[in-house]
Amino acid sequence: MAGPALRCSFCVHSMLKKFHKIDRHFFPQRLLTTTATTPAAWNYQWKPSPYPKTQAEREAAAKKYGLRVEDYEPYDPYKDPGYGDYPKVGWIGASHKDPYQDYDFPHMGTDYKEVLHPDADLATYDRTFMALFFIGFMATIYSIHFISVEYGWTTHMPMMPKQYPDNLWIQRGRDPKDMPKVVHYTFEPASSS
């Protein structure tokens, strides 16, 4: 694995040095070698194993997650597929834990190798704060709207009612003979005073 990556980084370095005249100390070869051979940043080592079928596999999975065999209960593979041998733990959000405990990850309220709920990222401190912020923001907007409607503040552009020909007298089923005459404007000369 390191051989092709090393050759590839050397080729890239030589091309860059040749075409762009970059100094060796400015763009070291070691930088290209380390970036080409390091694995990606996800936790592929912590991927759960398949669902335990025997008692020995259950004991190994319980030991893997630091639980007693009596406390270990995996997710049902038919109801929750994809969790493998991951243990079914209770939902405890960060806001329900002791805020004065010295956690390994204080921003998440967890310790190293602590078994978490699969959706534990939904209840960290910052998510709780964001939920409270959202609820407060929506309550403020609703209060402003309620007060403006209650006290008659205009929340729209003021307009006159739309004018229809004959004011929809006939369309509403009324007799056309009884229709009142509405004069919107006249062509008479203005009176001089």
TrEMBL record:
Keywords in alphabetical order: Membrane, Transmembrane, Transmembrane helix
UniProt keyword annotation of Transmembrane helix present: yes
TM helices/strands, residue ranges: 129-153
Pfam family, one: NDUF_B8
Name the record gives this protein: NDUFB8
Source organism phylogeny: Eukaryota, Metazoa, Spiralia, Lophotrochozoa, Bryozoa
Family matches, as InterPro entries: NDUFB8 (IPR008699)
GO CC annotation: mitochondrion
PANTHER family: NADH DEHYDROGENASE [UBIQUINONE] 1 BETA SUBCOMPLEX SUBUNIT 8, MITOCHONDRIAL (PTHR12840:SF1), NADH-UBIQUINONE OXIDOREDUCTASE ASHI SUBUNIT (PTHR12840)
